[in-house]
Design brief:
The structure is a single chain. It contains ten helices and eight strands. The chain is α/β, with parallel strands linked by helices. Strands 1-2-3-4-5-6-7-8 form an eight-stranded parallel beta barrel, surrounded by five helices. Strand 3, helix 5 and strand 4 form a beta-alpha-beta unit. The chain is elongated.
Length: 324
């Protein structure tokens, strides 16, 4: 019996020692694990802190660099207006201007855009200025802008004219210099005739050409101080140096000082919906900074629908569906 008791005591002792050692090892492992977690959380916290600091710094930069009238001289514009514009045409076979505008109005859209000229520079309305200069015949059945805009007003539609300023694409700098006066006069004429704003399709993203557009916009604002004129930019955004991969904030700031709004042609070069979405993401900072208007080509209904859906998902509400 005594031997059995001694055996049980030895077993019990060993079990107690084993449990104490097990508890000790578990405690050590827990302490090591807690220390490792502390270090990991500390590292994560530092990373998040740096990200927050970087984000705050970026927001501060955005706020400090955002275009304000005090920063941009006497530029006669406030914050860009967000719109949703449908395309139309002043003249089209088979339907009247009133019926086309009524269809847009019935859809609930409150803005319509139309071309003032073709891509090769042919005016699509009757222009006294062009006629006085001998660039258009007085014998024309085209709409007079005042009469056409009266129809837009009757349907409660915001009227956006689009011009291609094709003469500014001339390779001769002297010819382009003369064209600045011609196109600025036509744009001013359109604004005086009641067009709410004019979007200029930049013929080139070369810095020199954009500098010429700045001169054009300044002249338009001299003629029509309260007129609204915007410029369409393409991807990639303009650069001062062709070898640079960085966007030129300085050039955009100069453009902003003269233009009332920016539009972004995300489908330039025949981009697909996925490519256009990638461009919007890459240029998100600039899209938000300037409330850029996204230009959506209407020639391909499927592409237009996909782009409209992408813009809705991203919260972009400043959209303009372009004429075919």
């Amino acid at each position: 019996m005594n031997g059995a008791n001694r055996q049980r005591r030895r077993v019990s002792y060993r079990q107690r020692v084993y449990r104490r050692r097990k508890i000790k090892y578990i405690s050590i492992i827990c302490v090591i694990a807690l220390a490792a977690l502390f270090v990991i959380f500390l590292i994560i916290g530092n990373i998040l802190d740096r990200k927050v600091e970087d984000t705050v710094a970026r927001l501060d930069e955005l706020e400090s660099n955002a275009p304000h009238s005090s920063d941009t001289g006497e530029a006669p514009h406030a914050a860009p207006k967000s719109i949703h514009a449908s395309p139309t045409a002043l003249s089209a076979e088979g339907t009247s201007l009133d019926s086309r505008l009524a269809a847009i109005q019935s859809s609930g859209i409150t803005a319509a855009c139309f071309e003032l000229d073709s891509k090769d520079g042919v005016l699509l309305y009757s222009s006294p200025t062009a006629q006085d200069l001998g660039y258009q015949s007085t014998d024309t059945s085209l709409w007079h802008l005042k009469n056409a805009i009266a129809r837009f007003d009757a349907h409660g539609l915001y009227a956006i004219g689009i011009t291609h300023v094709s003469r500014l694409d001339d390779t001769d700098d002297l010819a382009r210099s003369a064209a600045i006066g011609y196109h600025s006069a036509l744009i001013a004429e359109a604004l005086r005739d009641g067009v709410d704003e004019v979007l200029v399709i930049a013929p080139s993203a070369e810095p020199q050409r954009l500098e010429e557009l700045i001169r054009l916009a300044d002249e338009v604002h001299r003629l029509v101080p309260d007129g609204k004129i915007g410029v369409s930019l393409t991807y990639p955004l303009p650069e001062y140096e062709s070898t640079s991969k960085e966007f030129s904030d300085e050039l955009l700031t100069k453009l902003w000082s003269s233009f009332d709004f920016f539009a972004l042609d995300v489908c330039a070069g025949g981009a697909t919906a996925d490519e256009a979405e990638s461009r919007m993401g890459e240029l998100l900072y600039y899209v938000l900074r300037y409330n850029m208007r996204i230009l959506i080509p209407s020639g391909d209904p499927t592409l237009a629908e996909e782009l409209a859906s992408i813009c809705e998902q991203r919260g972009f509400k400043n959209l303009q569906f372009m004429p075919q």
